[in-house]
Each structure stands twice: as structure tokens, then as C-alpha cells.
């Protein structure tokens, strides 16, 4: 202890006598400060472990801090400060809790058997306690309840009404004294006096509230929970109404000029606004130096020409021809035609705009008008009239090959053989069906059509006979010969000789036809 005291006294004396040493960095002084810190830390931890009272009260501090000695070798300042904080933080929490307990104690009423704060707490709990209907057993025996509620006087103990008295050790007094000394060093005597006055005021208010609460409780007991809730809502409504009726701040009124708001009140608000004009650069020393450097560089480079004007790249001249003319007339095209035109333009890549087409049309009209004007001027400038130039005639030229290729088919072969059956015969209407697939109506229709065809052929043959008889009357035609032959057949004593010389009877033999050989 003597070595430690001697070392600390020399260090403190050196600091007091030569405070100017802290202005400049000194390694010897920093090592001395580290060693003094280590000595004080190690001494405190040693006393903490050896003293049983300190060890009992600071058991949580010892658990949180694993270092029994301060380690400064190969450690920077932040690491050393972190080691000290492991001891300081839990110790400060412990000391403040002890002081708060001492502060809450009443100097006259509180003793080791009675505390005013606990008494107030228990009375408030008993007053606020209300028996619920669920806890009452309406079917229980009243005699049993009375017997159970009665308590034996011999079983009553002190612990049933009071908490056990708190143990006070000597360390509590020592710790409070150490804390008071540290507070005196940091805050001074004035802070301690203010704290003592605050403590007295706090205790006086507590005692005053203890007696005033009884009067309030009498009024509250007469009111139901619904009435209390209604009072709370009413107070809240009154608060909102006063806020609405009260004069609003100038920030909530709207546009406020300098006369409507207090002086310099705009500086307290966070505003966002845009500048219309480009801000003027501040003339600072750096700005002037920059200008001087530019002037010097231009003098050295001998560039005394003026600044060249540059065109605005975004500037576009006003062209009335580029304006779009919006027509008020209803479109004559349907929506399908418009979609069709858009599709054709996209597929054929012929993106013609109506505005461009109208512009081309106007250009063409201007060119024609200019040509007419030039022609008239040419005619007036000469003595004789100059006729108009010939207009180009439109002729259609068919691009046919000069040589036609001959086909392989011979000339004497008709083209009819090359035709398909569909090209020669007319196509039959309706579905093609077989004999077994046709029904009675279809069969009847086919028979009628067949009869009509035969009748038509018979009429054509008769017309042909009449025409031939008129042209070649007598036996010069085959029809007259056949007619005479038919008239001779069936007569007696008439024989017919063929070209081969065979004889045939002219009598017709009637053949019996059975019904089985006939078909419908």
C-alpha cells in the first residue's frame, strides 16, 4: 500500500505542478497514467474479493466482469477503456438503485417495520379490488364459509401483515458515501442541495396526496364505471373542441405574408421552394483565383479572340408546314379499312404519312404553276409565240416474249383428249350415291329423269327425220327405208335376205316375258 500511495502521490503532484504537459504528446506521461489506472483498478478488485460484505453485495458485478486485473500490455486505449467499462456500468447501476431506495424512504414515518410507499400501495390495491360474480359460490353452505373464514389467533404471524425487515450492511453506508463524494466532485455542492430540496418536496407531496386521495376516493366510489367512462369521453371532447376553437398557427392558415406571421418565424420552418433565376455565384477568394488563372492561361496561349457563339442543340425553328391540320369532318373510312391500311403499311414498310402526301401534292401544284409561269414569260419575251411542249402520252406495253415455244403434242391430235372429265361433262349436283343407298324418293326422281331423257331423244329423232325428208324425199334416206322395212315385217309370204345371204322369216315371234326377268 505504501508503494502504491507513493506512486500515486508522485503522479498527482506531477500533473498538478506541470499541467502544460497535456498540451503536447508525451509517452512517459501516458505510460505513467496507464500504470496509475492499472494500480487503482487492481486495488479495487482486490478489496472487492477479500471483503465478504462487498463480495456479497457486488456478486452480480463480479459475474459480469471476468477481469481481476487490468490488462494494458499490447492493448490500445479503446480496449483498455472497454475493460474499465465492464466494471463501471454494473457498479453505477447498483449504486443508483441503492440511492433510489434511500430517496423514497420517508425520514420520519419509514422504519425497518413500516414503509409509507408500501402502505399506500396495499391500500390502493384493496380499494380497487372488486369481487366478481364468478368467484362467489351461491350453492355453498354458509356455515362452512363462516368456519373457513375464521382464523385462529395463535396462527397469526408478523409475516402475514408485514414484509421481513431489510438487512442493512455497512457497505451500503460506505457505498452511499463514496457515491456522494464522486457526485460532489462531478456536480458540486449546489447539485446536492438541489437534490435534497427535491427529496423534501417529493416526500411532502406524497404525504399530502395520502390524505387528499381519501377525499377523491369518496366521490369516485359513488360513481359507476359507466359514469366514469362518460366523464372521460366528455373531457376528451372538450379538449378537442378547445383545440378547434382556438386560434390556429400561421402555418395552418394558408398563405401568410410577413405581417401575418411573427418575426423570424420562417427561419424555424423547413421550407422547399424553387429558384426562378439561376443563382449568382458568390465572389469568394477561390472564385477570383480561378478567374485569374483563366486570364493568365489565355495570355500565355495568346488566345485573345472572342468567345465563339454556340448554337442551341435543342433549338428548332418554327415551320408552319410542319403543323398538323386536324380536320373536323367525320372519317369516310370504316374502322376495318383504317386497320387494314395500318397493317399494309407495317408489312410492306411503306410508311406514308398523310401529312407528307399532302405536302408532296402541294409541291407538285407549285411546280406545275411555276412551269406555266415560265412558259408564259418565255412567250412574252420573244416576238413569236412559242407553243407548249408536247405532253407525254400514256401507252400500255405488254411485256411478252419475242419467241413462242412449240408444244410437244402433234397437230392432228385434238385437245379434247387432254381435257379432264370434269371439263367435258357437266358436274352432277348433289351427293353421289349407289343403288342400295338411295331411298324411294330418290329412285322415283331418277326414273322420272330417265323418262324425260328418253322422251327428249325421241323428239329430237322425229325432228331430224322431218328435216331429212324435206331435204331428200323418197328412198334416198335411211329413215324411209327403215319405215318401209318395218311395214313389211309381219306380213305373210315375205322373206328377208341379209348381206350374208341368209334368209329370215319376216313374221315376228312373240316371246313370253316372265315377271321374274323384269326390274323396277
UniProtKB/TrEMBL annotation:
Pfam families: Mpp10. Residues 125-151 have a biased composition (Acidic residues). Residues 123-151, 429-459 are annotated as: Disordered. It comes from the Eukaryota. One of its GO terms (biological process) is rRNA processing. Residues 444-458 have a biased composition (Basic residues). GO terms for cellular component: Mpp10 complex; small-subunit processome; sno(s)RNA-containing ribonucleoprotein complex. Residues 429-443 have a biased composition (Basic and acidic residues). Keywords: Nucleus, Ribonucleoprotein, Ribosome biogenesis, rRNA processing. It is found in: Nucleus, Nucleolus. InterPro entries: Mpp10. Belongs to the MPP10 family. This is 8527_t:CDS:1. It comes from Funneliformis caledonium.
Amino acid at each position: 500500500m505504501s508503494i502504491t500511495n507513493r506512486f500515486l502521490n508522485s503522479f498527482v503532484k506531477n500533473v498538478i505542478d506541470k499541467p502544460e504537459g497535456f498540451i503536447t504528446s508525451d509517452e512517459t506521461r501516458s505510460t505513467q497514467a496507464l500504470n496509475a489506472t492499472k494500480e487503482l483498478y487492481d486495488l479495487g478488485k482486490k478489496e472487492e474479493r477479500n471483503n465478504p460484505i462487498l463480495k456479497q453485495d457486488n456478486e452480480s458485478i463480479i459475474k459480469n466482469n471476468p477481469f481481476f486485473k487490468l490488462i494494458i500490455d499490447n492493448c490500445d486505449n479503446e480496449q483498455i477503456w472497454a475493460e474499465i467499462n465492464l466494471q463501471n456500468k454494473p457498479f453505477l447501476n447498483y449504486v443508483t438503485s441503492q440511492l433510489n431506495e434511500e430517496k423514497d424512504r420517508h425520514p420520519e414515518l419509514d422504519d425497518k417495520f413500516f414503509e409509507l410507499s408500501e402502505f399506500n400501495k396495499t391500500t390502493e390495491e384493496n380499494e380497487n379490488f372488486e369481487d366478481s360474480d364468478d368467484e362467489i359460490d351461491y350453492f355453498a353452505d354458509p356455515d362452512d364459509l363462516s368456519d373457513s373464514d375464521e382464523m385462529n389467533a395463535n396462527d397469526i404471524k408478523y409475516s402475514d401483515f408485514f414484509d421481513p425487515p431489510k438487512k442493512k450492511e455497512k457497505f451500503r453506508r460506505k457505498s452511499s458515501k463514496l457515491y456522494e463524494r464522486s457526485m460532489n466532485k462531478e456536480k458540486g455542492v449546489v447539485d446536492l442541495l438541489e437534490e435534497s430540496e427535491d427529496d423534501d418536496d417529493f416526500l411532502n407531496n406524497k404525504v399530502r396526496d395520502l390524505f387528499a386521495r381519501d377525499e377523491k376516493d369518496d366521490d369516485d366510489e359513488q360513481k359507476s364505471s359507466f359514469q366514469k367512462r362518460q366523464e372521460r369521453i366528455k373531457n376528451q371532447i372538450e379538449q378537442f373542441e378547445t383545440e378547434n376553437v382556438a386560434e390556429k398557427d400561421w402555418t395552418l392558415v394558408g398563405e401568410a405574408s410577413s405581417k401575418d406571421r411573427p418575426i423570424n418565424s420562417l427561419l424555424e420552418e423547413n421550407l422547399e421552394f424553387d429558384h426562378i433565376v439561376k443563382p449568382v455565384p458568390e465572389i469568394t477568394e477561390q472564385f477570383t483565383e480561378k478567374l485569374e488563372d483563366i486570364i493568365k492561361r489565355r495570355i500565355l496561349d495568346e488566345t485573345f479572340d472572342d468567345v465563339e457563339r454556340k448554337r442551341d442543340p435543342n433549338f428548332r425553328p418554327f415551320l408552319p408546314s410542319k403543323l398538323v391540320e386536324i380536320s373536323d369532318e367525320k372519317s369516310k373510312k370504316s374502322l376495318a379499312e383504317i386497320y387494314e391500311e395500318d397493317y399494309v403499311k407495317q408489312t410492306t414498310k411503306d410508311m406514308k404519312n398523310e401529312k407528307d402526301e399532302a405536302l408532296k401534292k402541294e409541291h407538285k401544284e407549285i411546280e406545275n404553276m411555276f412551269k406555266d409561269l415560265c412558259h408564259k414569260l418565255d412567250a412574252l419575251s420573244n416576238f413569236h409565240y412559242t407553243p407548249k411542249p408536247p405532253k407525254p402520252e400514256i401507252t400500255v406495253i405488254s411485256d411478252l416474249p419475242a419467241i413462242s415455244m412449240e408444244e410437244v403434242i402433234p397437230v392432228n391430235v385434238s385437245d379434247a383428249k387432254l381435257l379432264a372429265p370434269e371439263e367435258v361433262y357437266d358436274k352432277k349436283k348433289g351427293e353421289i350415291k349407289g343403288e342400295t343407298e338411295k331411298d324411294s324418293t330418290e329412285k322415283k326422281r331418277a326414273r322420272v329423269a330417265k323418262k324425260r331423257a328418253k322422251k327428249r331423244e325421241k323428239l329430237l329423232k322425229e325432228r331430224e327425220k322431218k328435216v331429212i325428208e324435206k331435204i331428200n324425199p323418197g328412198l334416198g334416206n335411211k329413215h324411209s327405208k327403215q319405215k318401209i322395212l318395218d311395214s313389211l315385217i309381219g306380213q305373210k309370204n315375205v322373206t328377208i335376205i341379209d348381206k350374208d345371204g341368209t334368209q329370215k322369216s319376216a313374221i315376228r315371234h312373240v316371246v313370253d316375258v316372265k315377271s321374274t326377268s323384269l326390274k323396277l
